[in-house]
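Consider the following assembly input.
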Amino acid sequence: MNPVPARAIVIGASAGGVQALLTILPALPADLPLPIMVVLHVPADRSNVLAPLFASKCALIVKEAEDKEPTRPGVVYFAPSDYHLLVEADGALALSSDEPVNYSRPSIDVLFESAADAYGAGLIGLVLTGANADGAAGLKAVADAGGLALVEDPTSAYARPMPEAALRACPAAQVMSLPRIEEFLKGLGQA
Amino acid sequence: MSPVAPHEVEDIEIQLLLEALFQRYHYDFRHYARASIKRRLLQARTHFGLPSLTALQERVLHDPEMLPQLLGFLTVQVSEMFRDPAYFRALREQVLPHLRTYPSLKVWIAGCSAGEEVYSLAILFREEGLFDRTMFYATDINPDALRAAEAGVYSLDRIRKFTENHQKSGGRTSLSDYYTADYGRAVFDKSLRTNVVFSDHSLVSDAVFGEMQLISCRNVMIYFDRPLQDRAVGLFKDSLARNGFLGIGSKESLRFSRHAGAFADFVPEEKIYRRREP
């Protein structure tokens, strides 16, 4: 499949995303050998409840991303509400309060594009359910840099527009149902 | 020759462009966090319709009139008045009672951008009866931002959010007491800036200019790399009076700073620190 071993995973989700991530993330083992960075759109004032919610259900360590924080394998980093999350060339995380992109802050495109620069072919990008088009340009950047592009099957997704937009921008992306995505990500630990 | 990915060529272009800006105009973005500066430069390239960052460099080197526009892309932050109301509430309820004991006060808003925080603090200090004994220093590196800050004019469609934030911050008055509406704009009362000095100052290259009781520098240092953050925090350390206060952005931290030991947590959840005794 992917000739370059994956070094990081980025995930973007919007409407229905909490449920979708609750299907995937708790199933992953604590010794997953790479970090996961997540942008999940939630209202800005519903602030920062995501990390505690997922931490209580996951074997992986789950935390809110901090500025200049180095990433570690086996840790899930959520973008804080009202900040963009980016990855620097050395793999450290960065936050910004630049203007919203695709009406979103955090924006999936901002995370995916910077992570594609940082990890190149070593990145897996995954676009899940959502009712907008954020993440489409980002997923294309992941594929253009040689990374693996994955999209939740729009026909079974809670909201179709975001995975559909991602597929239009990045037709080479692999389409998978949530259970299939879960299996695939679990397999990364058993290479 | 080994193959080079397009983004690696872009990285070289970014480095050269930042070097050119520094040598030609003495604006130093070389130690800004690279991922964000890259987004901003690529936005500028698209805006000017140029094929590459090298072309952008060529233009700005030879055409000084390009500089203000490029600076706009590289520096301007859209903020809100009373952004993160809990921060202003913590200042009001926990920091100002300490400041009240001083006969005169100096407050530095570092990286004031278009002035939203300057007016927020001026209103807060007026509500708490400290305005008349306070001198505010509002600094930025972008002359256009400083002009906007000094003008204190904001689009009326932003006022609803400002008002909501002000109330959540524990505001004792109505925000509408401080501006007049005029053709879709809110013009803030010039009496709010009688005690404000707007000034060009760079956290990258300039020095201490006064002894402050409070410094507020929010969502500015997240754009800096570690060594530059250390410089800025060192500058704040040297600018604060004994027991002076430093407020930073809600997602920023002094934890990783070389100068962390010079500060004690004061309101940790709002990232308000207090200078330790030297």
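The beta strands of chain A are 8-13, 36-40, 61-64, 75-78, 84-87, 93-96, 123-127, 148-152, 174-176. Ask yourself how this observation constrains the way the partners meet.
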